[in-house]
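== Folding the chain ==

***
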Amino acid sequence: MAASVQHAYGYAWRSSKFLIIATACIALLTGIPPSPVVVETLLYGFVVPILPYMLEVRLHRDPGETQSLTTGLLSIHGFVTLISAPVTAALLDKTANRKIPLLLSLAMCLTGTLLVAFTPTFWLLYLGRILQALAGSAAWLVCVAMLTENAGERSVGRMMGLSMSFVMTGTIGGPIVGGALLEWLGYWPAWCVPLGILLLDIIARLIMIEPPRQPRSDGSSATARDVAKADIENTETSPLLPPLPQVETAETEPQASDTTRPAGQSDGFYFEMLRDVRVLASLANSIVYSAIIAGFNTTLPVHLRQIFNWGSLNVGMTIFILQVPTIFFGPLSGWLRDRVGLRYPTTVGWVLLVPLMWCLGVPGNPTFPWADAESHGKAIFISCMAGIGVVSTLVQGSGFLHTIAVVQDIESKRPNIFGAHGGRSRAFAMNSVGFNLGQMLGPLLAGYLSEAIGYYYMNVTLAAGCLVVALVSFTHFVF
């Protein structure tokens, strides 16, 4: 079977790392990842400026309902992902080849996007958003797993940083492209952009040949790249590549009889992972980070209007300043993680967020008259937002990467405990659920604290939370 695949037309370039990584990155750009606050991509953001036109002009809804309907259509994604991600991940971990799952997810995403674009009825519009959420969650899990497997153990952090750059490109560019095309060219020309990119990614997925995953093999059917690495490496970090082919069945059968769980029993995976304090530290990173960023979206519009009298344009530019550093500093942060590990960059990132979060609450507080709107308040606020955007690249994705490192460590000591193809997808799903929990809890917590104790003390509380997570990361991040 492997020989026939290798004799396929253009096998060398169709199975190249470049094409695999490029296909995954395009899917990340057009798909909808597990967190619609931070890593919402082009399709999620594209529809935001178009939704009022769709609801009021195409569906003839009362303009007074636009705000509530828009909130529901955008927030449904997080709820669907929270439910679907663990189930999808369990199925993906039982699949040897990811070609079919990714094709199905892209086809489902295309179907959902067409439903959203045509907007025949309000409920079909909701159905389209649900299909986009299901497909986007699956595509995210598949693509991130593809990136980490094809990156090589010394480049996983850099690949995650690169993927975040593509994600943030979609986040920032989606609303801009959608609004501009709708105003300049009209409704259907605007939709040609995401539909065209989706079709391009489907074509790339059909062309691409992904080397099959070999959970246990003597090397005869593995790809040349896998065999070369498997023959010379047998370290605890090698599972970040495709699952170890050097583990012999004869050597692992006695141990597997006691420790191996069937691949379909996801409950065994989650029980094993959630009792590991290292995994809890990873989830704390994902939840707290997403909660803080989600809190910005909830509190910034009102706060900036109160202290600076800023409107929607200035608020949007402030959020842009927060998000854009990821595009440029994400790969650099990933390179640093590959060089020195996760523990120290993550800890330093959280520690640096402490003074930045505190300082963000200073402008407009009467205790600090030198930071009011008429003096240095605006410069301080914008500088803090830019600093948070840069520093957050050190902590963004740390929970995902550390969970994968824990999975590989457990599998190296107890082979096949998570099934024939490992537990990478379920590990990503755990952090996806954590991210969505943060996205749901963040606005509630930030909104309550802002009203109860004020914006300044809300930021003091968040700064204290950053310090706690820094201590947790330093003590329990071991990779």
About this structure: The chain has a mean pLDDT of 78. The longest helix spans residues 277-308. The chain has two domains: 2-207, 270-476. Residues 2-207 form a domain with the Growth Hormone; Chain: A; fold (CATH 1.20.1250.20).
